[in-house]
Each structure stands twice: as structure tokens, then as C-alpha cells.
């Protein structure tokens, strides 16, 4: 048995896997070491059978369906009979702009920011109970968010897509969200009045504008004007107007949500909204969430390309959660590996910078290096 | 709260209507044959004809209890006629017309009545707030102003005016009637009474349904467009940007409004008026601006792109279409 598979075996011998809700209604799928085809349409009547399967076949990747089926092991969708599905969000560093330029640790931190935004949407806007939301480190480059709530169980593709669109601000037309009014004081000016505590996108946009203008005000004149000019359609004059207009009295009004100079503010809106939205999907993929049937990694299982465990993240503990500590499950025993590609990584708080050639490293580094295909066992 | 007979007459599809008919112990045979129900039968014919002609059934002044009764009975009769014609198009159009009629009356009702009817369709409307899951089931989200993202939502509840709640109910009614009619068989008696009308409608609608889009080479469409057409035909609720892509593309390759309508008409939630309006808006007949089809990069961000080999050479669906046509024409020449 090769080293990686042996280590996975040792893990699954003792592992406590969190079985998905209604496990008997889910389809499972597996990928194995050195095999490229996925084994699908498998079902288990309970957790014990699943654990037994993991111990005996030692898969490299374990997935289960977000959908519930009447007959999960059937070969076709028609025979499976869809009964409903959880709502799944996939936040992956690959979906971030400039993803490939970021270091692994950095990209995970960035994704956490997206995750926080997502949680705020789910809890504040959609009103999901915190108890119905589970967050997992994916074992790879991101986080998965599962929503299990009977209200959304039966929603179809199109309805789920509306949820995704909401969170990503896709199709947002701010003229529907914020209502402009013309007021008269010497001349007619367009203003909006949105209290920052308003619910939904309305409040988000208000808070976005306010905090942006606060930021602008706190800057040096030159710097502020440069920043403003970086927006499409804002030139010297408008930038100066905005900055110079931000006196204390106006800032007071703005903080209350009385925002004028709408002609100029409007130019800021689009990029601002983009910042406030969650960046969920990559350029080529259909946003996976909109799908009423998809496969997701099993919590507690190992990711075959990193050796990290798909790990539950406590909602209150998100800030402190460090996947490169808590998802590392292997031991300290020293092993010799032959590094093919030099790499750097910080695992369990220790920095490793490995050069080509044979080195002795703790088992948890060896597993990572082998899974990434950056080293061989020596 | 129980509905009174004249309210039932306005909403003959509600539970109370069924209960009322049961209580009155009148059976369908009677309504079909007895001379005293002649007015109900005439109104049934009117319902179907108006639905077909105007897409909506006009409200009728109901002056006394007898007229209300006739109005109530005309509804099941009209349904039987529609079922007997066996035309999907008529089913859709009729369901929509009934729903619109109900909407017109509902708008004028008190909040309590709106709420009660909403509840029959599983929509809980409290103080102008509807849960987003109910909202999404019925809102016409292809319309930008109905997209969830353009709504004010707080803790799962979407803020709606009474009018808007009525609009959701309209959609729920349309759904219900349409689904019921798709699975309904008319008893042979119906043909005895309304035979003439039924065969007239059959002939008329048959001619409508076999019309085909011509002069356009469908096999050369890029995958994104093919996919959109398939999605619409299979009854998926295609998002606004998808419809936009499809209409601008078809318009650019020379399809007429009618051709485009034809494609949308196979969608189960086809609404001729709205679709025509949308098409004419996008193709510049109303707005004066002719929108160009979006480029691949944009289509991709909408998640509507399903590229194949040839797509590598195209950055625009129109370019794909032209490349493919040329290729096919060239290969045709070779065979000759
Ligand atoms: S690459 Fe362009 S033409 Fe091809 S499917 Fe995608 S959007 Fe359509």
C-alpha cells in the first residue's frame, strides 16, 4: 500500500465522521488514489455502513449529494427521484480575482472575508437561523457553507439562482433599491434618504456609501482625490467637489443617511456594490449553488490533494479558525521524503521551507507534500 | 371568515366554491342540460372566448344571487370546454386569463380577504411581508423589478404592497389552474353541448401550433443559445439575462418578433403580451434602442456559457454562428 493511502487508512480507522442529515437519502461518490473515474450512485443506510466503507476502500476523496433522493443509488436522475436539497455555497479561492497570485495562506484569509459577508446575508437578509447554517473548511482552498432549512428544501434551480443573484448583487438595479428625490434649496438637487439601519441591500448600500465617504474624509486631500479619480467617470472637478464638500455638517447628514450629490455618488455605486457583494463564482463555472443537485465533500473526510480534513468551523470562532492548524490531522513522527519541487508552508504553527532533495519532516508535512505531488517518500 | 356567494363568484377556484357547490347538491349533468342553467353555459362560452381573444376575462356585474350562481357554475363548465379542446396553448392562455381576472378583483379587496386567499395558495402575508421562499415560488423574477435582489428583504421577509401580493396570487392561481387542466379529461357529454365551439377552437388552434421558424439555421446556433432554447422549451424559468441574450441574438440573425415569440410560446409560463412587449423593447420597436447581443465574456459571467470546440475561435455568439454557417456551407460544397 502506498504511503498516502496507508495514512488515510490509519485516519479512517479512528475517524469520527459527521454523517449528513438523512444519510440514507443521499447519494455518495468516491474518487480513489491513482484512478480517474468517479465511483457514483452509492448509498448507505446509516453511518456505520459509511464508516465501514471508508475503512475498507480508503478513498482519496469523499462526496455526498446536497439533494435527497427517494432512491439515491439509482443510476439515473429519473429513477433517483429528487425529493429536495440543501442550499450549498462554495467559496473557493479560485473564484477570487488574481487568485493565482496569492499565497495559500493569504487566499484562505481573503476567502474568510467573503464568508463573513455571506453569513451576514444569510442571517440578516434571509433570516436563516444560525443553527441551520454549517461552515466547513473544504480541505482545499476554501470554505463550504451548508444551509439546512425546510423552507428552502423544495426550491428549484431558478429560485436558488435568485438567492445567489441576491448575494452576488447580480441584476441589482439600484434605482429599485434606493429612491431618489429632488429637493429644492436654492437649486434642485437630487438626494436620497436611506437610513443605514434599513434592511437588505438598501441598508448595505447606505452603509457602504457612508463608510466610503468617511474614509475619503479621513484622507489627505491629494490622496483622496486620487482615490476618487480611480472611479470610472470621475474627473478632477467632481473629485474635488466631493472631497471639499465633506465638511462636518454634511458628514453629520450623511451619517443619518441623507445623501446628496447623487450625480457624483452614482458613479461610485457600481464598484461599491461589487465590493459589498459576495464573490461566489469563477468565470467559467455556473455558480454551483443554483444547482438543485450537486456533490459536496463529506465533513470529516480527507481531501486527497492536500491530506487536510474537511473541518467544521464554529460560527463564533470563525475569526480565530486557522485551517492550517485545525485541519491537519497527522502526527509528528519524522519521515524522510524526496522533495521534487521546492515549497514553503506553515503548518501547525511551524514554518517549513523545503528545497529539492531528501529531508526529514514530520508526518503531517510529508502527507501534504505527497498529496500535492511535490515529493516522494524516500 | 366564510366567503359570501358573490365573493365566491369572483374567485370560483377557491375551496369555499367547491364547498358551496357540494352544499347546493347540484351536479354537472344538471348544469349541462337543464334550461335554467342556460345563462351559466353562455357565460362559460364567453369565458373561453374572451380568454382566447383578449387574454383576460372581463368582470361581469353580478346583481343578484342567481347571477352569482350562474357565474360560479360557468367556471367548471369553461374548464371542461378548455380540457376538451386539448390544446396546450389554450390551457395556458385560459389559465392566465382567469388569473388576471381574479387579480383585477383582488386588487380592490380588503387586506383581510387578500390574506385569506393568499393563504389558500400557501402564501403567508403578514403586514405586507411575505417569506422569500413563498415569494420566489410565484414572483415573475424575469422582470428586473421583481428580482429578489431589487426587493427590500429583512430577516427572510420581503416587503410587498397589497397590489404586489395580489400579483403573486395571480401567478399562484395561474399555476394551479394550468396544472389542473393539463391533467383533466373532459367527459363526452361536453362535446354534445359545446361540440360546435370545441371543434371550431380545435381547428383554429391547430393551425397556430404547427407554425415553424423558417429561414434560420438552428443547427448553427452556438451552444449557449441552443441551451437557452432547450431550457425555455422544457419549461425552466429562464432568467432575464438569458431571455435578453436569446432575443438579441435571434433579432441579430434576422428573426422576426413572431419567430421569436414562437420559441417562447412553447414555454409553459408563456405570456404573450408580456413577452411581445419584452421582445419589442429589446429589438427597438418600442424603445428605439436596438440592443446588441452580449459578447461571450458577458454571457460567461451570467453562467450561461457552455462552450464547445468552435467557441475557442469565437468571442461573440454571432461570430460563432457565422463561422459555423460558413463551415457548413463549405462542407456542403465539397459534397457536391
Ligand atoms: S463561448 Fe460564446 S458562443 Fe460559445 S457557448 Fe460560450 S457564450 Fe456561447
Can you walk me through this structure?
- The complex is a heterodimer of chains A (378) and B (336).
- Chain A is of the alpha+beta class and 378 residues long.
- Helices cover 37% and strands 22% of the residues of chain A.
- Chain A has helices at residues 3-14, 47-57, 77-80, 104-125, 157-168, 174-177, 200-218, 221-229, 236-245, 248-255, 262-276, 323-326, 363-371, and strands at 28-31, 39-42, 61-65, 67-69, 82-85, 87-92, 133-137, 142-147, 180-185, 187-193, 258-259, 295-297, 311-313, 334-339, 343-347, 350-354, 357-362, 375-377.
- Chain A has a four-stranded antiparallel sheet, with no helix packed on it.
- The two termini of chain A are 15 Å apart.
- Residues 282-288 of chain A have low confidence and may be disordered.
- Chain B has a four-stranded antiparallel sheet with strand order 1-2-4-3.
- Chain B has helices at residues 5-10, 15-24, 28-33, 38-54, 65-85, 88-106, 111-120, 132-138, 162-182, 189-209, 223-233, 240-252, 257-265, 272-282, 296-301, 317-335, and strands spanning 125-126, 129-131, 153-154, 157-159.
- Chain B is built from 16 helices and four strands.
- Chain B is 62% helix and 3% strand.
- Chain B is an all-alpha fold and 336 residues long.
- At the A-B interface, helix 5 and helix 7 of A face helix 8 and strand 3 of B.
- The structure holds iron/sulfur cluster.
- Iron/sulfur cluster binds at residues 222-224, 296, 299, 305-307, 311, 314, 317, 320 of chain B.
